Amino acid sequence: MASIIPNNSELFFEENDLIISKTCLKGNIRYANRAFMAISGFSEQELRGKPHNIIRHPDMPKGVFRLMWKTLQQGEEFFGFVKNLCTDGSFYWVFANITQDVDSNGTVQGYYSVRRKPLPKVIHNVIEPLYQRMLDVEAQYQGPEALERSVQLISHWLEQEGVDYNQAMITLYQHGQIKGSSTNQQKDTIHGQRA
Amino acid sequence: MANVRNETSRGVPFLKTQFIWGGLISYSVITATFIYSTWQYGLDLWHVAGGMIVTIILALNIVQSFRMIETLKRLQTTLSSSIDGELHHRVHNTKGLGELGQVAWALNDLLDLAESYFKEVDTAFQQVAQGNFNRPPLSAGLPGRMGDSLRSITQSIEAMKENERLLNSNSLASQLHGLNTGNLIRNLQQTQHDLSRIDQEIRHVGDNASQNASDAKASLNDVETISNAIKDIANTVNQATEVVQVLSHDSAKVADSLMTIKEIADQTNLLALNASIEAARAGEQGRGFAVVADEVKALSQRTKDAAENVDTILSGFSQRVDEVSQMSSRSQSVTSEIEALVQQFEGRFTRLANSSEQSANQVQGVATVIYHALLKLDHIIYKQNAYVILGNRDEDLDYSAAQVDHTECQLGQWYYTESTQLSFASSQAYRSLEAPHKAVHSNIHEALALIEQDWYTHVDIRDEIVKAMERSEEASSAVMFHIDQMTDTHMQQLNIA
Description:
The structure holds two protein chains of two kinds. Chain A has helices at residues 34-40, 44-47, 62-73, 120-140, 143-161, 165-175, 181-194, and strands at 19-24, 29-32, 78-85, 91-102, 108-116.
């Protein structure tokens, strides 16, 4: 397949749209909904059976996907802000939630990914600067070390913020920032307790 | 469910059978029509062409029909699986099936929504079960009642979270309260003990004071007796002086008498010389001897008088000496009386002095007990301040009371004062006091730092807080023990323990 040349045109989807896809355990696409096809420009035939990184944008640090697989293989859900590539080279940002797809016998069939519309200010203020630093690190080092250091960058950032990764991502998605939300909740409780 | 058949459709064949029979009948009719028209009218190009077109269209229709039936079957299996609770199946490959494709995609969309809904609900409650209330179900993109339902669940989880926080905060408060109550009662008992000790010491001081008062009264009586005795002695001494003056006068008289006797003796000597001269002249014997004899006679008379005189004086003298002797013996007895009184007096005075010293020591001891009790009380209040801050975290509260370190509190200020350091320089208890006192403050500071963290959701932080306060209480017991020891040592030094 001829590789797509990315350009700077950004596409947006509606706040109430859900972009949904399912993959097998290896990450090959088994199902993509119409919202997926509409924004990415790929047809069902072009998508089915193909690895999900068909829509991976070169601006995405590899460390994020490394963290994603690590999280999913531990049986936990993964949240992440992801920049995706369209067939015409344009891009769109999503807030992805990936969970295990479990059948009625309890065996893991694959993965289920729901993407929601992120707040543009989160992408601009938090995610892009973080990913840029990760990309810099990945360019600076070779092979597995590059990935390790890239993931470490996220860990250091979370240590400074004092929250775990999924928590940070949900808070960013819901409130647009990490600082301030948890301490406010504590203060509310104190007043509730005294009342 | 899948086995239940609608009674209305019983006996009516399925669409596939209908299509197969319809196709077969159509083919049979077309073939029969073609054979009949060829037999009747001969082979005609239009008949052949028309028959071919109709046959091809019919064949295409049959193929589409089979695809439709396939799709319908997939729709049916997908729906059946969904009815069985498996929401992950989807209907694929419906390109070109028009309305049926739309139905298939609508089903896919419905399943997407249903699956997303249940996934959100499952994940959120799984996290809640693990104690994480910060993963609410995300309602974006879920329309109508689905979205409403997720928003209600989010509210419920918020309520559960509040409840959990309240429970956790109550649990911490009750743990701290239990810890505080136990230790506070112990601290108050110690204070009670200190107060009863002060009471006891004060009673001792009171007893001493009343003993001193009665001793002083008795001493006053003694002093009167002594004063009378001394007056008596003064009188006796005056009398003795008079007697001695008389004696001195008498002794002058004796001296006079002795002079007279000396003169007599001289004259007698001279007479004896004259008599010897007269005796040598022998001739005139008569007259001379008679005169001498008269003179000697008179002389002896005078000597006799003088002797008598001396005798009288001497007897008076002896009488005087007796008087003086009597007076002296009386003085002696009075003196020994006074000596006894003075001894008694001295005994009382020594007792009084000792008792006063003891009273002074006791008062000093009581002052120490009171001061140490105050230091302990301040230490107890410091801990209470910490408990109050840990129990009611509010910005209005004054944190500074609990944030002082072991050199800034009352106990610390006293401990590090130069005079304290000098007076307890050799005290083991004083040296041992520093480490536990420091530990009390550092552990309370640790608890105060932990209470700033998110202890509402983390049980380990709550445990850490309680543990820090337990360590603080343990160190505090050691502080109390060493202060008591310092008090005891001080009392022993004052010899009143």
